[in-house]
């Protein structure tokens, strides 16, 4: 079976694609709400992941100039919890 995060990401992309029909966007929205709790794919936690790699990724997010301030704040909060 496909990775649920990738599937949800595809539906999210459909919602933001200006070339997608309103019917397709409505279907994507329904699927996200019913099958993915509104698009929340955070069920994959950091459990079982190498904490040093996770910390490194979060630090990279903080220093990336192309990252939004919201993402940087989230990364900083997660780093502080480690």
If you had to describe this structure to a student in words, what would you say it looks like?
- With 82 residues, the chain is mostly helical.
- 65% of the residues lie in helices and 0% in strands.
- It is built from four helices and no strands.
- The chain has helices spanning 4-16, 22-35, 51-63, 69-81.
- It is elongated, with a radius of gyration of 16 Å.
- The termini are far apart.
- The model has no long low-confidence stretch (mean pLDDT 85).
Annotate the secondary structure layout:
Layout: H1 4-16, H2 22-35, H3 51-63, H4 69-81
Over all CA atoms, what is the radius of gyration?
16 Å
Mean pLDDT: 85
**Inertia-based shape:** elongated
Q: What is the tally of helical segments?
A: 4
Largest sheet: none
Amount of beta strand: under 5%
Succession of helices and strands: HHHH
Number of strands: 0
- Amino-to-carboxy terminus distance: 32 Å
Structural class of the helices, strands and pairings?
mainly alpha
> Percentage of helical residues?
55-70%
- Low-pLDDT parts are none
